[in-house]
Design goal:
The complex is a heterodimer of chains A (146) and B (563).
Chain A: E1 5-14, H1 20-40, E2 44-49, E3 53-61, H2 62-73, E4 78-88, E5 100-103, H3 106-111, H4 128-141
Parallel strand pairs in A: 2-5
Antiparallel strand pairs in A: 1-3, 1-4, 2-3
Chain B: H1 5-11, H2 14-19, H3 21-27, E1 39-43, E2 49-52, H4 54-59, H5 70-76, H6 82-91, E3 98-101, E4 107-114, E5 120-126, H7 128-137, H8 148-165, E6 169-177, H9 179-186, H10 188-205, E7 211-216, E8 219-225, H11 231-244, E9 248-250, E10 253-255, E11 258-266, H12 273-289, E12 295-297, H13 300-319, E13 325-334, E14 339-351, E15 355-357, H14 359-368, H15 372-387, E16 395-400, H16 402-407, H17 410-421, E17 428-433, H18 434-439, H19 441-454, E18 457-463, H20 469-475, E19 480-483, H21 485-490, H22 495-511, E20 514-518, H23 523-531, E21 536-538, H24 548-562
Helix pairs in contact in B: 9-10, 10-11, 15-17, 17-19
Classes of the chains: A alpha+beta (146), B alpha/beta (563).
């Protein structure tokens, strides 16, 4: 059971403050650390981010996913970390990426349709499935991870 | 006079020792040095080790190689904290114990004593066991954090040095909210894993100079030194309440707990250790009383309030044996035609000095100290026995608190009370508030079903004041809904209250559940309630709580009309 594939989806409020430049540096930090750490423990997933929110899917062994989630829970850059789903999964959605990244560029914002606009991406208004699908779409519609 | 090192070495030759032991000891008392369990090194003015005994040989890598520099020896042997030891040797002065470590984990206390001609003798005592045991005694094995003993020792030091430097010290007492629920429902193993994660979050959220300790159970403490207060403690508390409240995932379970924190500062809130700890505890108590998942600083008024509360608690503990409780009975009526259908039992406490104590004052205290269990039992016994004196058509409604549900013996108690009193089970109605339901749905529901099987009726009290009334109506077949008096008393001013009453009545009708409006005080309220469709009422207007004798009298008075 512990080794079985689990999938965890959460969103949180982004506490990275500052100009776009600083935000990008912040997110780059998060990604590079996530990619390095996740790869060694066999966790894959995707991160979506804008100036308001993070939403992330983590998939891997239960223990590894729990471990990574705990690190996120302790991370000051996140606020109001809300767990949407945590359950066994049949297969990986993001098997190729230790952490695919979808920044909300102008192009992505357009793609994100109703979910992003003036008020920003608000995953609270989405079901976990819809969120997962949205992230999945965004990742696979691109040529590859950022 | 200089030290003759070769001669010194000869004095320790084993052959000489065996040949004439008694003589050797007498002539060379220094020879004993060779055999004592402490390590001994003699270092000359140039810093060269000129002598080492057998114990020292077991400590360092290159012994007994002659004439090596002490610095090289310490370095090559991988001794930790060698810098301090070297400095003390260079000082050529008596030193306190200098703690150094060996690569194999042994811990030594080194002491320097100067000899003549700028030589020094270094004694090395192995304190490994002592240090390990002390660490073990001061640490919590589960989380690895210092325990209460560790906290006491640390705080004593901190307050001592703060006194000389004038620095401020903050003590934060932290208690987990809803931890017991995790332990009870998922088991101690998950509870332990959760405590480990909490400890980890505390460690990571605090500075290296802060001390985090686990005092036992779900209690932790943090000592802050050399920070500017109260700002720093407040920041920390705010951060911890938020951080500990974040979701945990453990062994596939998603867990949510909270943290309540009490803060006391030295010297602002106390100078000595025990006062500071007691005041942090009082502040924690206040944080919990104010609704948990928050922090409170100590205030001097808390001391006085706690004294008052403690006295109330003591007197409350005596109230049952001293027979200071009694019950009153408030009639419940069906309307059109007007008909007495039962009484709600209300607890009263008449204290010889205080007089009548309000239930809102003593019931929360009784719940908190667990006294509500025996009091609740007494109420059930007394009310059921009393009801057997009544007309068999008249019911008796008794309030049951959340603590009685948590206790898990409610079904057994009710069964015993029914058997002993001989009361027909269908005449007993138990009123349970939503707050009691909130606590732990599955356990509570199992008990509610058990009560139903006994044949007693179950009413939901204070309907509409909790969070999830409707979902509970679906989960359990209640016999009655008591519409909270805030809606009843609001019908005169607020159309919304009328609408709510009407909706609840309609809800009851469609679910086949009786509804009763409580707290009716005026004719206006009564007619409005009636207009909204409510058919059962209770309140000061229709009948005040009365003595058991008056309750019987009332039944006699209405009997001719009702039969």
């Amino acid at each position: 059971m512990q080794d079985a594939l689990h999938q965890l989806t959460y969103f949180s409020r982004n506490r990275l403050a500052g100009l776009e430049e600083a935000l990008h540096d912040g997110i780059r930090d998060i990604l590079s650390v996530a990619r390095r750490n996740n790869a060694t423990v066999g966790v894959t997933g995707a991160l979506i981010f804008n100036s308001l929110c993070f939403a992330q899917i983590l998939e891997g062994s239960r223990e590894a996913v729990e471990h990574i989630f705990e690190r996120i829970a302790q991370d000051d850059r996140h606020e109001d970390v809300t767990l949407l789903t945590f359950s066994p999964a049949a297969e990986r959605l993001f098997g190729n990426w230790s952490m695919a990244y979808v920044g909300l560029s102008a192009r992505d914002t357009e793609r994100f349709g109703g979910f992003a606009g003036e008020s920003g991406f608000d995953p609270r208004r989405m079901s976990a499935d819809a969120l997962g699908q949205a992230i999945y779409q965004l990742v696979y519609d691109r040529d590859g991870p950022a | 006079m200089s030290i003759n090192y070769p001669e010194l070495a000869n004095a320790f030759s084993v052959a000489a020792w065996q040949r004439e032991p008694a003589q050797s000891i007498k002539d060379n008392p220094v020879a004993v040095l060779a055999e004592i369990p402490a390590g001994v090194l003699i270092v000359d003015a140039e810093g060269i080790v000129r002598f080492s005994n057998a114990s020292a040989s077991t400590m360092f890598a290159l012994m007994p190689a002659a004439d090596i520099g002490i610095r090289s020896l310490l370095h090559l042997s991988g001794v930790s904290n060698a810098v301090e030891l070297n400095r003390a040797i260079d000082a050529r002065a008596p030193s306190d114990a200098i703690r150094v470590g060996l690569p194999d984990g042994r811990i030594l206390d080194a002491r320097i004593r100067p000899l003549h001609a700028d030589a020094v003798v270094i004694t090395l005592v192995d304190v490994t066991t002592y240090v390990r045991e002390a660490a073990l005694a001061a640490n919590d094995p589960l989380t690895g954090l210092p325990n209460r003993a560790g906290l006491i020792a640390h705080l004593t030091n901190a307050l001592g040095s703060a006194k000389t430097t004038g620095a401020e010290v903050a003590v934060l007492y932290l208690d987990l909210d809803r931890f017991k629920l995790v332990n009870d429902t998922l088991g101690h193993h998950i509870g332990d894993l959760l405590l480990i994660k909490v400890a980890d979050r505390l460690r990571n959220a605090t500075r290296r100079t802060d001390m985090v300790a686990r005092l036992g159970g779900d209690e932790f403490a943090i000592v802050q030194e050399n920070e500017s207060q109260p700002r720093s403690a407040e920041q920390m508390a705010r951060r911890l309440v938020e951080l500990i409240g974040r979701t945990y995932v453990i062994s596939g379970h998603q867990l949510n707990i909270g943290a309540s924190i009490g803060i006391a500062l030295a010297p602002a809130h106390g100078h000595d250790r025990d006062t500071v700890l007691r005041h942090a505890d009082l502040a924690l108590y206040r944080a919990k009383a104010d609704g948990r998942s928050r922090f409170r600083f100590f205030q001097s008024s808390m001391d006085a309030e706690m004294q008052v509360r403690r006295r109330l608690e003591e007197e409350l503990r005596r109230a049952l044996p001293l027979r200071e409780f009694h019950l009153v009975y408030q009639p419940q009526y069906r309307l059109d035609p007007h008909r007495l259908i039962g009484f709600e039992v209300l607890l009263r406490w008449s204290h010889p000095r205080r007089g009548a104590v309000a239930t809102s004052e003593f019931i929360p205290v009784a719940e908190e100290i667990g006294l509500i269990i025996p009091i609740g039992e007494w109420v059930l016994h007394t009310a059921c026995r009393e009801a057997t004196n009544w007309d068999p058509s008249i019911g008796v409604a008794v309030n049951v608190s959340a603590a009685q549900f948590r206790n898990g013996k409610l079904v057994d108690t009710v069964r015993a009370v029914l058997r002993q009193s001989g009361l027909e089970p269908s005449r007993l109605e138990l009123e349970i508030t939503e707050t009691a339901l909130l606590d732990n749905t599955e356990i509570v529901l199992a008990q509610l079903r058990g009560l139903k099987q006994l044949g007693v009726r179950v009413a939901m009290d204070d309907f509409g004041t909790g969070y999830s009334s409707l979902s509970y109506l679906r989960k359990f077949p209640f016999d009655k809904i008591k519409i909270d008096q805030s809606f009843v008393q609001g019908v005169e001013e607020s159309p919304d209250c009328g609408a709510i009453v009407r909706a609840v009545v309609a809800l009851g009708q469609s679910l086949g559940i009786d509804t009763i409006a409580e707290g009716i005080e005026t004719d206006e309220q009564l007619s409005r309630i009636k207009a909204e469709g409510c058919r059962t009422v209770q309140g000061f207007l229709t009948g005040r709580p009365m003595s058991p004798e008056a309750a019987i009298e009332l039944q006699r008075a209405v009997a001719p009309e009702q039969t």
